[in-house]
C-alpha cells in the first residue's frame, strides 16, 4: 500500500483538477469558526470581477459577493455546513464587483484526507443566469439583442 498523501499534495491535486475543468471556485482553510479563503480560481476572478488579492483572507461567507437580494438564510446554511463538515448546495443571488446580480448554485465541499479529517473547503459556484448573462445592478436581466422579435425566425 502506498504511503498516505500529505494534505498539501491533496490540496494541490484538487486545485489542479478543478482548474482544468474551468470551474468557478474558492478554496478555504479549516480555521474555525469561519475558514478563510486561501485560493481563488481564474474562472472565479473572471466570473466575479474580483482579483485573487481582493478575495484572499475573506471568510467563507464571501460577504464581498452579497448585495440587496442576497438571502442571509442561505449564507447561514453555508456557515452551518462548515460547522458540521457537511456538503451542501444552496441557490443564492450574489453580486459581481460591478454590482450586477448573478443567480448561483453555491456548493460547499469539505475535502477530507485519508484520516477523514477535513483539510479544506471548496466553494464551487454554478451560474444559473440564462446564457451566463449577469443581471444589472437594479436586478433586471441584461437582454441579448439577438433575442428581440426582429431577430427571431418565423
TrEMBL record:
Query: Taxonomically, which superkingdom?
Result: Eukaryota
Q: Name one GO biological process term.
A: regulation of membrane potential
User: What GO annotations for molecular function exist for this entry?
Assistant: voltage-gated potassium channel activity
Which InterPro entries does this UniProt record tie to the protein?
Answer: KCNH_animal-type, PAS, PAS-like_dom_sf
User: Where in this chain does the entry annotate a coiled-coil region?
Assistant: none
Q: Where is the PAS domain?
A: 36-127
Might you report a single GO cellular component term? plasma membrane
User: CDD domains, per this entry?
Assistant: PAS
Record's Pfam families? PAS_9
Q: Which Gene3D superfamilies match?
A: PAS domain
**Where is this chain compositionally biased, Basic and acidic residues type?**
144-154
Please give the residue ranges the record annotates as the region Disordered: 134-154
- List the PANTHER family: POTASSIUM VOLTAGE-GATED CHANNEL PROTEIN EAG, VOLTAGE AND LIGAND GATED POTASSIUM CHANNEL
Q: Which NCBIfam families match?
A: sensory_box (TIGR00229)
Name recorded for this polypeptide: Potassium voltage-gated channel subfamily H member 7
